[in-house]
Amino acid sequence: MAKHDLSSHHFQQKISTFCEVRIAPVASKRVVESIRPYLIGLVIHRRPPPIVNRRMDWTAIGQACGIEGEMTAELKRQLRPGLDAIIRWLPR
């Protein structure tokens, strides 16, 4: 397995753990199971989360996860570090 693939696989595992530790305590199981594949998809496809005017586009993120009505302020606050980590992980 290429080093690039190992890095991606390792980071996907970290994102999955992040969802269990940070997202699960503040959201329903359905929300967690909607967010996890979205975040892992960003890693697999090496794409940043949607950003508008240098801010997270929470509407687009909610729509992509299918949880538009469940994006509470607390969920956003807990989700932000994971999205920031993905942005930092991506190659420049």
Largest sheet, if any?
Answer: 2 strands, antiparallel
User: What is the number of beta strands?
Assistant: 2
Task: Give me the side-by-side strand order of the main sheet.
Answer: 1-2
**What class, by secondary structure content?**
mainly alpha
CA-based shape? globular
Describe the structure.
The protein is mainly alpha-helical and 92 residues long. The chain has one domain (3-89). 67% of the residues lie in helices and 4% in strands. The protein is built from 4 helices and 2 strands; from the N terminus they run ααββαα. The chain has helices at residues 3-23, 29-44, 58-65, 73-89, and strands at 51-52, 55-56. It has a two-stranded antiparallel sheet with strand order 1-2. Helix 1 (3-23) runs antiparallel to helix 2 and helix 1 (3-23) runs antiparallel to helix 4. The longest helix has 21 residues, at 3-23. The radius of gyration is 13 Å and the shape is globular. The relative contact order is 0.17.
Layout of SSEs?
Layout (H helix, E strand, L loop, with lengths): L2 H21 L5 H16 L6 E2 L2 E2 L1 H8 L7 H17 L3
Antiparallel strand pairs: 1-2
Question: Main attributes?
Answer:
92 residues, mainly alpha, two-stranded antiparallel sheet
Q: In a nutshell, what does this entry contain?
A:
The chain is mainly alpha-helical. The chain is 67% helix and 4% strand.
